[in-house]
What we know:
The structure holds 2 protein chains of 2 kinds.
Chain A: H1 3-15, H2 20-32, H3 34-50, H4 62-78, H5 81-125, H6 139-147
Chain B: H1 4-19, H2 23-45, H3 48-65, H4 75-93, H5 111-114, H6 119-133, H7 137-148, H8 153-159, H9 164-187
Helix pairs in contact in B: 1-2, 2-3, 2-4, 2-7, 3-4, 4-8, 6-9, 7-9, 8-9
Amino acid sequence: MNCSDIRRKLAVFSDGGLDPASKELVSRHLDSCPECQQELAQLERLDAELDLFEEIETGPYFATRVKQRIAEQQAHRRSPWFGRVLVPTGAVAVTLVAAVVGTSLGRTVYSWRTSTQSTTQVASTGTLTVLDVPTGGSLATVSDRVFTGGKGE
Amino acid sequence: MMNPADQSGRDLELVARVARGDEAAFEELVGRHQHSVLNTIHRYVGDRSAADDIAQEVFIIVWNKSGTFKGKSQFATWLYRIVVNQCLQFRRKKKQALVSLDGLDPDRPPEALQTAVDHERAARTAAVKQAVSDLPDRQRIALVLSHYEGHSYKEIAEMMDTSVPSVESLIFRAKDELRQRLLAYKEA
C-alpha cells in the first residue's frame, strides 16, 4: 500500500473501524512515514474539534408531546367519513341554496315593486289599463281611488 | 447498567408490546432512545426546534409501524433507518431555506457570542457547526452516526441501506472536506 491508499484508510483507522489485519498494516506504515503521521494527527485534531458541537438535552415533556400528537392523529382517523367529507360538502350546498333562493326572492320583490309603481303612475294619469286592488274595500271605493289618483277620501 | 445485548433484548421486548398498543412500553422505548435520536437529528439539521419536531415524528412512525418490525435487525438499526429517512426528507424539503445553520456564520459570530467570555471557542464552535452543516447530505449523516453516535460502519451501512466500503468512502470524504474547511477558517 502506498501513502494514498493509507490516507484513505486513516479516517476509518482513527475511528477504530478497521479490521485487525488492515489496522496492523496501517500501523506499520505509520511507523515509517512522517507525512502520514502528520495526516493522522490532523484527523485526530479534527475529531477533537467536532466534539465542540455539543449535545442538547431533550425537554421534560418530549414523550408526552409525542403521545399527544399520536392521540390527535388517531382522533382524526376515527372521526367518521361523513364528519370529514359530508359536513363541509353540506355547508357548501346550504350556502349555494341560500344564495339561489335569496337571488330569486330579491328578483320577485323587485319585479312586484316595479309593477306596483307603474300601476300607480297609470292610475294617476286617469287611464285605466290595470286594475290594482292593493287593499280591501268595495268596488266603488276602489274605483273612486283610481279616478282621484288615490287622493279621494 | 445493562450491557448492549441486554439493552437490545429489552428493546425487542418493548417494541413487541408497542405493536400490541402498550402505551407504557412505548413511553419506556421513547425514554431509552430520545436523547440519541434528538442529538443525531440536531447535528444533522442544525436547528433545535426542527430537530425536536422531526424526533417526535420519528417516534410517531415507530408507534404506527411497530407491527412491521420483524426483529431481523436490531431495533436501533430499524429506528435509525427511520431517523435517516426523516432527516433526508426534511433536507429535501428545506434545501433552499437551510443556507445557514442556526443563522451562524463563522466569519460573523452573533452578538451574544461576540460578548461571550470564551469568544474564540464560541466562534470555533460556530465554524464547526457550519462546516458540518455544509457537508453533502449522505456524508453528514454518516459522519454524525459514526462520530457522535458511535455506530460501527456495518451498522451505519444497514441504517443507510448501503455497503460498508460506501460508508468508509462517505466518512473519508466528509473528514477531508471538514479538515480543509476548518483549516481554511483557522488560517483566515
